[in-house]
Amino acid sequence: MPFGRGPRAAGWALVPALWLALSTAGLGRQAEVGAEGPEPFFVFSGFGASQVPAEGVEWLVRPLELGRSVPIATVNTTDGSELQSRVLQGLRLSAAALPDGVKVAALSANLSFPGGGLGGSSALGAPTLVIPAGAVGSAPSRINMVLHARLEAAQDVAELDLEGPVQWRLELGSEETGRLDMLSDVACRLAVPLYAPATPAPRGGGKLRAAAFAGGRTGDKFVMLAVLPLTGADAEPGAPGPARVARSEDGGRSWEIGELRIAEREEPWGLPIEGPALLFDGPTATFRLLCRTARTPGPSGTEEPGFVVLSSADGGRTWAAPVSLDVPRVGVDAAGKEHDLSVLSVSSSGGRGLAASTGEWLWPLEVASSVPAQRRYLLLREARGGGTSLTTLGPRGHSAASFVELGDGAILASAASLRQASRELRLWREIDGAWRAPLRPPEPSLPCADGAAALMHVGRELTGAMDGRLVSANAAVRRKPPTRMSVRGSNDGGHRWPPHREVLLDDGKAVGGPGLAMADADSVGVLYRASSGSVVFQSVPLADLVDPVAGVGSVTGGR
Length: 559
Description:
Elements: E1 14-15, E2 18-19, E3 32-33, E4 56-59, E5 64-65, E6 70-78, H1 82-89, E7 90-97, E8 102-113, E9 116-122, E10 128-132, E11 142-153, E12 167-174, E13 178-183, E14 190-195, E15 212-218, E16 221-229, E17 241-248, E18 256-259, E19 272-281, E20 286-297, E21 303-312, E22 323-325, E23 330-332, E24 338-340, E25 345-348, E26 351-352, E27 354-355, E28 361-368, E29 376-382, E30 388-390, E31 398-407, E32 410-417, E33 424-428, E34 453-457, H2 458-462, E35 470-477, E36 483-490, E37 502-509, E38 512-520, E39 523-529, E40 535-541
Parallel strand pairs: 3-9, 5-14, 19-26
Antiparallel strand pairs: 1-2, 4-6, 6-11, 7-10, 7-12, 8-9, 8-11, 12-13, 14-40, 15-16, 16-17, 17-18, 17-19, 19-20, 20-21, 21-22, 23-24, 25-28, 27-28, 28-29, 29-30, 31-32, 32-33, 34-35, 35-36, 36-37, 38-39, 39-40
């Protein structure tokens, strides 16, 4: 087995019927640890670590995917330190608090150190992992440890609590010398995986489009819908492939996932799609899907690449036949200069469309040339009675835009910039005809990792009111691959994004492709590609992000 990236040390990561993907790699055999006492561990010769992490215990913020082993903490020690002495005297890991409807399926530890490594797991269903004194035969110069947990839904539970607290307890030392009792000091949330890759966590994330994810009230229920183009178990989310539709009516606790089906057709719609964007039209309680397909009926009767729109009036169970959507061949920039779009690459940037208060449906597009700095965003305006038009082209060097309607015909765009490490906000109004910067920049600036973001107007989603409460989700740290997926809230139309209104979901690498929808009247649903490589759903209390009421945002500046 080839060595992976990170410290090169022999080690084992063992859980029942599951090999863990860790920063260390090696060949090993399974060792099970009971709830109160372990079986013997197997110690092996190793190569020693090539990198020495900082000493200490670090609790990780990762989406706790049900049914999958997830890293929850790292423990790194140095020779002769008090922490190393306590680790050698024994370690005990247990759950201090779990949400309703969840149980611990397995806990595991992977240890690596110069000259050897060892690993083990608790017995299936045991609530505690114990590594006894003497598991490491001699005191090494350092120890690197990763702790994992696998949670599962408990049987005979009426409702799973996706927003309840998860807290871990780590005890180091022995009764003779005194135990060091540590509680996790970060907030981790349960996650429901909609797609899990067969391979370990992939790279990337920053190039993923925003998730085609939307929701709305149909009768007395909130329905959330996601459209994922997937080509197989090993496909990268967002790659062209046949559409998979995921729908939930219970706040994201359970999902129906299947192929996209056209009404009155026996076979599913199998055309590969790219860049899907989704919206919910409240007046008609209809979902609409825009995507680019490999083949659409052309003017001459032949099939050629193009944009199509599909609609569903039954919450995504079935869809009307796709209808071609024309994109005008000429675009206009803020200076009034015309641009021939037929010689440029016009694509759907994916994510959410808008059912505007004017009656139009607005779809996010992106125009690009061979020069990266020429990338621009714009909106395709689809009239309910038929016909399309374009908004003004956005500024050069901006991409991965997401949009919300603020009221008074104002559309707010949040886009990644090639020139700065924060998202840039711009306003468009028909009477103005240009994407203009707000009179005052947002405070603080929304961090940007060059990737896609999701943006949602809470009032528009719940009641149709323009109340200025916005929610944004994107990877916050500009690295390759991007890290730190988080959600933020604003009460004033995007002018202020208070730090205490930020909820961190995943502090790992290669996160991206977020989407937002209201899970119910009190919760925000977030869909994104996690650091594990899975596409996961998490629920965040609305009260953690925005206030109960708010006014129309001052970001419009009175224009």
